[in-house]
Design brief:
about 400 residues; mainly alpha; Fumarate Reductase Cytochrome B subunit; 3-stranded antiparallel sheet; two-stranded antiparallel sheet; 5 strands; binds protoporphyrin IX containing FE
């Protein structure tokens, strides 16, 4: 609504004290810092609003430290020392010498404005792009199913089976799989719960769900880590890359053609990619998860960044260096972001894995279900492995009860 009195007052004020802005040919506004008494200029404010990094040395360094408080016995007593803004700036930039009654690792940091950047990223791009990634991969798999259909056993099953995974292997698989699914679901509740559940079920219901979800997430993580170790020990030897993998990849794994399946031992190149993704992403998610589970005890990033700086890598991308001094809170914020970003990537990869291990390929699920697969399926996808097993013990191939 137009307010004539306010308009008049503002106009009068501008006439009496016109702002000291200059505008260049491109329309960009500039203002000398002296005109603000050394405080931020309009330019600083505009650049910050655009999300650009500004050189904040004018504030960071203006903490009144060159002006120590005059001795109480001197002419002006304690007057004339650092002003309140000086002190708050020093607290904000972590250069004030402060003491907190709590001596926890993060208690000495009174103001941590980086927390807002973390929150904005977590509630913004992280949710948006993470959500799109998962929906995108689901859409891709649905499209793949429509175009390619189920990958069948060429000319149908043989009725003879062979043992693919021992009970201990299936236990390790389902331990990591079951715990990952629980961790994924409860992690998504933490990230999306406030925006997705509160409008649907209200705050009280969400509080109960969030609490249970956090409890499950924190405790099931141990089962996941155990599963990760078991899977690593049992299958690492079968997942060392070799020349066959290149041929397999060059032929697209035979996914797009019938009767032409590249040779493979126990695991093909596609499965090795899944295996190493699970091991590497799973380990990094576990380590950053432990850093979150034991707050401030496992700082990971300052050290990692100094290693990366030493390689000279940031310079190649036009950055001076990654920050190597950070508050304990920043360490936690980075752990949280890293944990969630990798979890999204791993969930996307696992969606594809679940698809191919269930609806996407006839006969695949049996490998982890009963542990016995049809011999024709095995020859189609893992011919060299079948040769090895039958050479060792020809009696491992058994007719199924129904097949006779
Ligand atoms: C309902 C979910 C899942 C199903 C139906 C499923 C199914 C399967 C099947 C059938 C295999 C054996 C493939 C073969 O015989 O060659 C397998 C292997 C494997 N699974 Fe799963 N899986 C599931 C979830 C997961 C999850 C959540 C993870 C890890 C977080 C995982 C990790 C692995 C790994 C590392 C292998 C060995 C490499 C490979 O075959 O790709 N699985 N899975």
């Amino acid at each position: 609504m137009f307010k004539p009195l306010r308009f008049l007052l503002v106009t009068l004020l501008l006439l009496v004290a016109p702002p000291s802005f200059a505008q260049d040919d491109t329309g960009a506004v500039s203002q000398e810092r002296e005109t603000t008494g050394g405080a931020q200029t309009l330019q600083d404010i505009l650049e910050r609003q655009r999300g650009l990094a500004i050189d904040d040395a004018f504030r960071r360094d203006a903490t009144g430290t060159e002006n120590p408080i005059p001795d109480i016995n001197s002419a002006l007593g304690t007057r004339g020392g650092p002003s309140d803004p000086d002190i708050y700036r020093a607290i904000r930039y972590n250069s004030a010498s402060v003491r907190a009654s709590n001596d926890g690792p993060a208690a000495g940091v009174f103001i941590q404005d980086g927390g807002m950047r973390w929150l904005a990223f977590r509630d913004g791009p992280m949710r948006t792009y993470g959500g799109y990634l998962l929906l995108g991969i689901l859409g891709f798999l649905a499209l793949f199913y429509v175009l390619r259909g189920r990958i069948r056993i060429d000319d149908g099953p043989s009725g003879v089976t062979i043992e693919r995974f021992k009970p201990v292997e299936r236990f390790g698989h389902w331990l990591i799989a079951g715990s990952f699914i629980l961790l994924g679901l409860t992690g998504l509740v933490s990230l999306f719960g406030r925006v997705a559940f509160i409008p649907l079920f209200g705050k009280d219901t969400f509080a109960t769900v969030a609490l249970a979800s956090k409890w499950i997430h924190n405790n099931v993580s141990w089962a996941f880590m155990l599963g990760l170790v078991l899977v690593l020990i049992m299958w690492v030897a079968h997942n060392i890359p070799n020349r066959l993998d290149l041929v397999w990849l060059a032929k697209g794994g035979g996914l797009f053609s019938k009767h032409s399946h590249p040779s493979s031992k126990k695991f093909n190149a596609g499965q090795k990619i899944i295996f190493w993704s699970v091991i590497l992403l799973g380990s990094s998610i576990s380590i950053s998860g432990l850093a979150l589970l034991f707050p401030f005890e496992i700082p990971l990033f300052a050290k990692t960044f100094s290693w990366i700086n030493a390689t000279g890598l940031p310079g190649l991308f036009g950055y001076e260096a990654l920050p190597t001094e950070m508050t304990p809170q920043e360490e936690m914020q980075l752990s949280q972001l890293w944990h969630s970003i990798l979890a999204f990537v791993m969930m996307a990869i696992i969606f594809a894995h679940i698809y191919i291990g269930s609806v996407g390929m006839e006969g695949a699920y049996d490998a982890m279900g009963s542990g016995e697969v049809d011999l024709k399926w095995a020859r189609q996808h893992h011919d060299l492995w079948v040769d090895e097993v039958l050479a060792k013990s020809p009696e491992s191939a058994k007719p199924t009860t129904e097949g006779g």
